[in-house]
Amino acid sequence: MSDPLWVQLLDQADRLADPEGVAPSEADLRRAASAAYYAVFHRLTHLMATGVGADLETAAREGLRRVPQHGAMRSVLEWIERGTAPRAKHAASLLVAEIRAGAPDAVALGTSFKELQERRHAADYDHLTDFEPIDVADDIDRADLAIDVIDGLPDPARHALAVLILAYGGS
Fold first, then answer.
1. Is the dihedral of CA 50, 161, 111, 106 positive or negative?
2. Is the dihedral of CA 46, 50, 53, 58 positive or negative?
3. pLDDT (0 to 100) of residue 47
């Protein structure tokens, strides 16, 4: 069985950002920054699908992974960073409190996700931004650390994050 997609994406980012024997091209650096972001995004969608849909058939569980939208996912993670959801989303605030109480490191996910998403957007759409190997290496490290935080979540925080993403991470 092959590695999960997020592991493959981080490996790809590493290979693109630091090819053996040659300097990486601008295109390689941009693809590496994008892959680092997508590694975190796919790790989060997998957490959500397996946390909420663990008893579903594979096709249904994998279908859940299509629910989260990039902007909404960012908002959800920013709620965790801030410690509260918008006033009209009381249930979300309860889930945020559960996550923060059980996993203080999860607070950093909002900042990491936002920064990686902004870099991915620049990589894909801002042709005036130059990408430097040292900055892309930082992106890859940030993604790796975010995935470590996700992987280290205790079960109650993991389940709360899965429900939060499913309930509020879509369009």
1. negative
2. positive
3. 93
Locate 143 and state its tokens.
């993604």
> With contact defined as beta carbons under 8 Å apart, do 51 and 161 qualify?
yes
pLDDT digits (tens, 9 = 90+) for 112-148: 999 999 999 999 999 999 999 999 999 999 999 999 9
Two structure tokens written together for 71: 């902007």
What is the DSSP secondary structure assignment for residue 171, as one 8-state letter? -
The letter for the amino acid at 60 is A
- Confidence (pLDDT) at 60: 85
- The token duo for 39 is 């590694």
Long-range contacts for 91-98 (Cβ within 8 Å, ≥24 apart)?
Answer: 91/167, 92/164, 92/167, 92/168, 95/160, 95/161, 95/163, 95/164, 95/167, 96/160, 96/164, 98/156, 98/157, 98/160
Task: Evaluate whether 110 touches 77 at the Cβ level (below 8 Å).
Answer: yes
Cβ proximity of 161 and 99 under 8 Å: yes
| Entry field: residues in the chain | 171
Which residue's entry shows tokens 């959801």? 85
Q: Which two three-digit tokens encode residue 22?
A: 């040659």
How confident is the model over 148-165, as a mean pLDDT?
95
